[in-house]
Amino acid sequence: MATGELTRVEVDPSTLPPGAAVTNSGRVSAAKMYEPHAPSLPFTAVQLSTLDEALTLASRATGLDFSVYLGGLGAESRARAEELHASTPRPTHAVLIAASPGERVVEVVTGEESHRRLPDRAAKLAVMSMIASFKEGDLAGGLISGLRMLTDQAGHAPRQH
Amino acid sequence: MTIVETVLVFALIPLAIYGVITLLTLRPKATRIQRYRPGQEWDYAPVWWTANPAGLPGGAHQVAAAPVEGRTAKGGARGNW
């Protein structure tokens, strides 16, 4: 057999599953049924991209590490949120917004530096704004408005040089 | 135009059009996004979003600080809805 010569494996067309066929080159081409999968979160693509943009802009403008956690927090929601906060790469600058729609609770956790920039009063104000939207069932809108309020309250990042 | 033709044209055709439109509204929406309503169960897997590192001043290569021991939380707020 010469170099580069194609090998042909004879395939019996009667043994192929439905939707598969042997092409002229000998390759087996199989068609698969398209199965639309349900979305993994109740958000539209536009809401997700707005949230991503709000998160990135908030972190860039303030120099703090904003993050949004959406999921169960358990009975001890504050302790769980603080655990999550401690597991961030830079906890002193981290601002964690942890929302649990199942338990209908939202927690904002700030670290050492982020607490200096974002007093509890500012965090509470953002939480109240988020809750107003969450009550209407608008999770994405609430998170985005909360992020924007926290960004405005924290102000710009101090100059490094 | 006989009475049968009149009924066919002026009653059956409009009814057929209504029927088609009704069926269109009832077709299953497999990819439809279920809206969240307050008080409903949250069966989705937990997600944790952070800022896109490419959009931050440090670029995509952020320097990760050493993990801090103990309690890191200084303040914050909480709320229920």
UniProtKB/TrEMBL annotation, chain A:
Question: Which Pfam family is one of this chain's hits?
Answer: DUF5130
Q: Which Gene3D superfamilies match?
A: 3.10.310.50
Q: Where is this region: Disordered?
A: 1-23
Name of the protein in question: DUF5130 family protein
What organism does the record attribute this protein to? Saccharothrix xinjiangensis
From TrEMBL, chain B:
The UniProt transmembrane annotation reads 6-26
Q: Which UniProt keywords apply?
A: Membrane, Transmembrane, Transmembrane helix
**Does the keyword section mention Transmembrane helix?**
yes
Recorded superkingdom: Bacteria
**Name of this chain's protein:** DUF2510 domain-containing protein
